[in-house]
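testing teh design pipeline on a random one, pls ignore if ur not involved
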C-alpha cells in the first residue's frame, strides 16, 4: 500500500474511533449519569495535558528563535475561543423563542475538529517521511483520541445534545482528520501550518480550564469531587505516558 493509501486508512481509523461514544448507548441512564462528570473531567485532563505535554513542546521546536511569535499564536487561540463563546452565548440566549443551550458543545466540536485536522496533517506528514514513523504516530494519535472522544461525547450530552446527534457530530468532527491528511498530502511541503499548533493549544487550554473544570467543580459532595479530580489526573497521566513513549 502506498503513502496515500496509508493516509486514507489512518483517516478512516480515526473516524471509527470517533464512534467510540456509541459504547454509552449500552449503559443505563443512571449509570451514565454517574459516569458523566468523571468523563467530562477526563476530557479536561486530556485537553490540558495535550496542550502542555504535546502541542506546546512540539510547537516550540518549530518556532526556534521565535518563541514570542509562538505564544502570540497561543494567546490568539485562547482569545478566539473566548470571543467565540461570547458570540455563541449571546446568539442562543438573547432570542425570545430560543432555548439557551450551553455554548460548550459547540466549542468542543470546533476544538475537536481543529485538533483532528492538525492530527491528520501531522500523521500524514509522518507517513510522507517514513511509513513506519507514520504508523507509530498513528498509534499515538489513536491512543490519545480514545479517552478524549469518550469525554467529548459526554460533554456534548452534558451541553444538551441528544445521544444520536452527539454521535453524528463526533463522526463529522472525526472526518476533519482525513481532510487534514489529504490536504497535507496534496500540498505537502508548500503548506506552512506551524501556527496551528500553538493556536490549537490555546483552544484546548481555554476549553479545559474555562469550561470543563468549572463544570466538574459544581458538585458539593467531597467524594464526588475527589472522583472527578482523579479522572482529571488520569487524563493528564495518559497524555504524559504518550509523551514518554515518544
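output:
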Amino acid at each position: 500500500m502506498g503513502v496515500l493509501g496509508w493516509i486514507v486508512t489512518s483517516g478512516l481509523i480515526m473516524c471509527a474511533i470517533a464512534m467510540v461514544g456509541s459504547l454509552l448507548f449500552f449503559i443505563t441512564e443512571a449509570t451514565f449519569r454517574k459516569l458523566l462528570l468523571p468523563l467530562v473531567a477526563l476530557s479536561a485532563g486530556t485537553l490540558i495535558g495535550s496542550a502542555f505535554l504535546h502541542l506546546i513542546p512540539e510547537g516550540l521546536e518549530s518556532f526556534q528563535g521565535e518563541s514570542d511569535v509562538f505564544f502570540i499564536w497561543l494567546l490568539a487561540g485562547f482569545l478566539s475561543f473566548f470571543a467565540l463563546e461570547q458570540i455563541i452565548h449571546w446568539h442562543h440566549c438573547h432570542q425570545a423563542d430560543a432555548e439557551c443551550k450551553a455554548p460548550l458543545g459547540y466549542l468542543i466540536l470546533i476544538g475537536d475538529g481543529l485538533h483532528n485536522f492538525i492530527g491528520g496533517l501531522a500523521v500524514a506528514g509522518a507517513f510522507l517521511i517514513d511509513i513506519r514513523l507514520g504508523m507509530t504516530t498513528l498509534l499515538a494519535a489513536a491512543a490519545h483520541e480514545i479517552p478524549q472522544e469518550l469525554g467529548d461525547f459526554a460533554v456534548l450530552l452534558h451541553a444538551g445534545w441528544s445521544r444520536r446527534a452527539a454521535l453524528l457530530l463526533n463522526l463529522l468532527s472525526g472526518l476533519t482528520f482525513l481532510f487534514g491528511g489529504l490536504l497535507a498530502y496534496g500540498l505537502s511541503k508548500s503548506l506552512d501550518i506551524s501556527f496551528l499548533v500553538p493556536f490549537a493549544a490555546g483552544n484546548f487550554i481555554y476549553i479545559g480550564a474555562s469550561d470543563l473544570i468549572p463544570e466538574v467543580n459544581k458538585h458539593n459532595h467531597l467524594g464526588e469531587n475527589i472522583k472527578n479530580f482523579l479522572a482529571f489526573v488520569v487524563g493528564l497521566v495518559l497524555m504524559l505516558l504518550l509523551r514518554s513513549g515518544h
